[in-house]
Amino acid sequence: MTYYSVALLAEQGLIVRAGEVSIIDASVIEAKNCRLNKGVDGQCTQDPEAAWNVKNGSDGKRKSTYGFKGHLNVDEDGFIKKTDFGSGNVHDSQYFEGLLTGNEEAAYADS
Question: What superkingdom does the record give (predicted)?
């Protein structure tokens, strides 16, 4: 669902809110890592805009992933209000302000 369609629902009175809550989180999107002798003429086939991300798992182990992060701002019903994507090595806090719509009464995010 795009921002336009959410706005259209609001115009038609189908979305009524006294206040808005934003839930902001990121998901890791794995990209192809470079392997020798893959691709045309043995060149590296990895995406040059991707980067390494290190995440501490619930089991206490660190997991490294090569790729990107998708950052989302969703409301309490799960409707996506705003998105942003970037390389995996940029901390989630760098995207926080850009994901806000300005209509929030509260915003929740993890570390």
Answer: Bacteria
- Residue type at 94? Q
Give the range of the structural domain holding residue 45, as residue numbers without chain letter. 20-109
Does a structural domain hold residue 7? no
Q: Read off the tokens for 21.
A: 């809550």
CA 97 to mean position of chain CA atoms: 13
Residue 99 falls within a domain, yes or no? yes
Extended beta strands in 1-111, E state: 20-30, 51-56, 62-74, 80-87, 104-109
Give Cα 99 to chain centroid, integer Å: 10
Task: Residue 36: count other Cβ atoms within 10 Å of its Cβ.
Answer: 8
- The string of pLDDT tens digits covering residues 62-99 is 999 999 999 999 988 888 999 999 999 999 999 999 99
> Whole-structure pTM over 0.90, yes or no?
no
**What is the residue whose two structure tokens read 């902001």?**
24
Q: Which residues pair with 25 in a beta bridge?
A: 72
